[in-house]
Design a protein that fits this description.
- There is one protein chain.
- This protein has 329 residues and is an alpha/beta fold.
- The protein has twelve helices and eleven strands.
- The strands form two sheets. Strands 3, 4, 5, 6, 7, 8, 9, 10 and 11 form a nine-stranded mixed beta sheet that branches.
- It is extended.
Length: 329
């Protein structure tokens, strides 16, 4: 154990933000001169700050020659950490400066496509009604509930069972096959697959990477055997699948709720008149510790009101018959 180094760091506490900024800027430009210009300091002042930082750490962060500087292996590793630290400081400072003491921050996580196509319309006007609740919405494709994320509410697809979370069912998932109108007229003359499933040979099926068997399940539910259900372009999000369908790439199998605007406007049309029942549903979930939170209760009430209004306005399309908030997952 290097007690000398520990005592030295303890005595000096931590590097100053000025030293870290000088190091980060010099490392980014690989130039003390350019770093000095960006920071509005003299070249010698930047160089001195970095030298003092190296002295405190007892590690060389740069290789220095008469022509240029370059990062040492330790310098490269330290640069990544310092950059993250400075970004956190900037974010924390900006957040503090932009909100007064009466503001609550509500941290929301959602799948990207669901966020853009359902959650944002659902939360429209929330800020005006509740100006003291600041929405911090983060889109996330992967796991949500690791300790790395601070989550107040998450909008998720699944079975409604997540450890330490209370889940409220929003609605089931029903998927439809959609494509551009021109694609339909050029590739499909018959919309009943039972008449001629071989017509699919001329079609491109668009896939969501996380659901490789979705098309297989779609046809299986109809007791139709179709080859090549696993063949076709794959995309990370439903948003990309929908965009590809709009551009005429092929036929996308997507949740009906996520393509309502395009179906209403005619930008997309149903390739086949069948709606597949998904394996899961969409939920609003929050940590059990947040059950009594005012801001969480406010959002629950807001979403419930939105669903009631949507049920009434969209009933003619039969899109929300199942979506009544209040069913616990």
């Amino acid at each position: 154990m290097n007690t000398t180094a520990e005592n030295k760091l303890s005595f000096r506490k931590y590097p100053s933000t000025t030293a870290l900024q000088c190091f980060e800027t010099a490392a980014r430009h690989l130039s003390f001169t350019l770093a000095a210009q960006e920071l509005h300091m003299t070249q010698s002042a930047v160089s001195k700050q970095v030298a003092q930082l190296e002295e405190m750490l007892n590690i060389s962060l740069f290789y220095r020659t008469s022509q240029r500087i370059s990062l040492t292996p330790a310098g490269k590793a330290y640069y990544v950490e310092v950059l993250s630290i400075l970004k956190h400081i900037e974010t924390a400072t900006t957040n503090l400066m932009s909100h007064n003491s009466n503001i609550e921050t509500l941290n929301i996580i959602s799948h990207p496509t669901f966020c853009a196509r359902w959650l944002l319309p659902a939360m429209s006007g929330f800020g005006q009604t509740y100006p003291n609740i600041y929405l911090n919405i983060k889109e996330q494709v992967g796991p949500f509930f690791s300790e790395d994320y601070k989550v107040d509410i998450a909008f998720l697809y699944g079975d409604g069972i997540w450890s330490g979370m209370k889940s409220i069912k929003l609605f089931d998932e029903n998927c439809v096959a959609v494509c551009h109108p021109n694609y339909l007229s050029h590739h499909l003359s018959i919309t009943d697959l039972r008449v001629g499933p071989e017509l699919l040979d001329s079609c491109v099926l668009l896939h969501l990477s996380s659901r490789p068997s979705a098309w297989y399940e779609y046809f299986k539910q109809q007791s139709i055997h179709v080859d090549r259900t696993f063949v076709g372009p794959r995309f990370d999000t439903f948003y990309a699948c929908i965009s590809a369908a709009l551009l005429g790439y092929g036929i996308a199998l997507v949740p009906l709720r996520l393509v309502e605007p395009e179906l209403r406007s005619g930008e997309l049309v149903s390739a086949w008149d069948y709606m597949a029942k998904g394996r899961g549903a969409y939920y609003m979930s929050y940590p059990l510790s947040m059950e009594s939170s005012h801001k969480v209760k406010v959002v629950q009430e807001w979403i419930a009101k939105y669903l009631r209004a949507a049920y009434q306005s969209e009933a003619p399309l039969g899109l929300i018959a199942e979506s009544k908030l209040g069913k616990d997952g």
